[in-house]
Amino acid sequence: MNRTVFVNARLCDPASNLDLTGDILVEDGLIVDIGPDLVTQGAASDTETVPCHGKLLTPGLIDMRVFTGEPGTEYRETLGSASLSAAAGGVTTFIVMPNTEPVIDDVALVDFISRRARDTAIVNVHPMAAITKACQGEQMTEIGLLKDAGAVAFTDGDKPLANSLVMRRALSYATFFDALIVQHAEDRTLAAGGVMNESELASRLGLAGRPALAETIMIERDLRLVELTGARYHVAQVSCKASVDVIRRAKAAGLPVTCGVSATHLTLNENDVASYRTFMKLLPPLRGEDDRVALVEGVADGTIDVIVSSHHPQDPETKRLPFAQAAFGAVGLETLWPATLSLVHAGSITLERAIDALTTRPAKLLGLPSGRLQKGAPADFVLSDINVPWILNPDDLKSKTKNTPYDERRLQGRAIRTIVGGKTVHVLGEN
Predict the structure, then answer these.
(1) Which stretches of 128-238 are assigned E, i.e. beta strand?
(2) Is the pLDDT of residue 45 over 70?
(3) If DSSP codes are grouped into helix, strand and coil, which group holds residue 119?
(4) For residues 137 and 107, is the Cβ–Cβ distance under 8 A?
(5) Cα–Cα distances in angstroms (integers) from residue 178 to residues 123, 137, 143, 166, 175, in the given order
(6) Which residues of 370-389 are buried (b: 16+ CB within 10 A; e: fewer)?
(7) 41 pLDDT exceeds 60?
(8) Which of 12, 82, 165, 408 has its Cβ near the most Cβ atoms within 10 Å?
(9) Quick one: DSSP state of residue 286?
């Protein structure tokens, strides 16, 4: 029997409206008791005590959008290296996208990811499976079989499902299994050739733009199909005010629609691209400041359900190129929590809403048992110092690649201890 008690922590859990100073007792990977003064009530002699010194203890973060290179391009990222990065960032569960080589589009590959994660990862890893074969947008995958095999949701990753008939069929079929369909919303014909947000700044920089309209049009089409089918539908990332407004109206109408946003899009805007820094080349692109503010407001009022890292490692050879030729993507697992906390410190969102968007909401959407501090729940949580200032050194990142948009940035707040299944998998300052 393995027993550990975490003493004198600020316990915060939006799922149970918990916010108090107390202790949490863990036994054999599960939370068995929670509340004030557990130690004074008597603890077994074999119970390990971890003092928390009043720091914030929350459910472990759940990241719904992580790209890795396993299988196929392990030199960029493996499940093991991604899990090290996740643990350092306070992420105890992440969802891996199907855009691998080969694509996660059949039962054998879902099983492979699950087994590899159990063997090599120090955090929980769950796969999303592809909606269509090879993510080509033409032939639908076996959603029912894939869900039974362990797929927590269905997406074509960073490829939008453009074919309206295939999307209708996928949504209709998903209703039989209560499966979640996740869309990267972008009309690629409108966005063709674009490398940053379509704006005056793009014109001045001499770069082709990707209009926000391409995103909103795709969402509006999909919402019509959701209304027709009644399926659960999730927009992986919104990036502009118009999309937030559309989703807000859809929710008001009672449609089963949810959406996410990356922490990067909440904290940076297109002006950060002005120096042609390819680490700022993202998909969707960073938008204008008005859009960024609208995204923050969408998180604050609950229109935007979850915050994700959109962790997308790229090797130096594909990033250290002229901006137009460079690959899209940035790493984000280790900066997800600090970037979100910057909005809390600025007073833009509450701490409870930030935790909710990173724990409770994604757990509910994906049907996971984690994301809460309650008796009987998995002992997946993170101890954080939300006030500690620090400067991000890319060389210190656990990810195989270092293409972060936050390099040399001043940040405030970070994970200091990460616990998965009752076991400590990361302590700040320890290798």
Answers:
(1) 154-155, 180-183, 196-197, 209-210, 232-235
(2) no
(3) helix
(4) no
(5) 26, 21, 10, 18, 5
(6) bbbbeeebbbbbbbbbbeee
(7) no
(8) 82
(9) P
Q: Which helix (H) or strand (E) holds 400?
A: none
pLDDT tens profile 218-252: 999 999 999 999 999 999 999 999 999 999 999 99
Q: What angle do CA 207, 208, 212 make, to 5 degrees?
A: 120
Q: List the one residue out of 186, 189, 260 whose CA is nearest residue 219.
A: 186
Say what the pTM is.
0.96
Beta carbons of 339 and 386 less than 8 angstroms apart = no
Q: In which residue are the tokens 């859009």 written? A: 291
* Amino acid sitting at position 350: T
Measured CA to CA, the distance from residue 236 to residue 213 in angstroms comes to 16
Distance CA 214, CA 207 (A): 17
Structure tokens at 163: 């074919």
Tokens of 151: 């797929």
C-alpha distances (whole Å) from 135 to each of 166, 177, 320, 421 are: 12, 21, 27, 33
- Residue 161 one-letter amino acid: L
- Domains detected in the chain: 60-366 (3.20.20.140)
Alpha carbon distances (Å) from 75 to 81, 114, 163, 398: 10, 20, 33, 14
Q: Is 353 helix (H, G, I), strand (E, B) or coil?
A: helix
Residue 214 has what pLDDT? 98
Number of residues that make up the chain: 431
List, for residues 278-306, the tens digit of each pLDDT value. Answer: 999 999 999 999 999 999 999 999 999 99
Q: What pLDDT, in 10s, does the model give residues 108-118?
A: 999 999 999 99
Q: Decide if 329 contacts 283 (C-beta within 8 A).
A: yes
Quote the CA–CA distance of 171 and 134 in Å, as a whole number: 18
Rg (CA), the chain: 21
Measure the CA–CA gap between 109 and 101, rounded to whole angstroms: 10
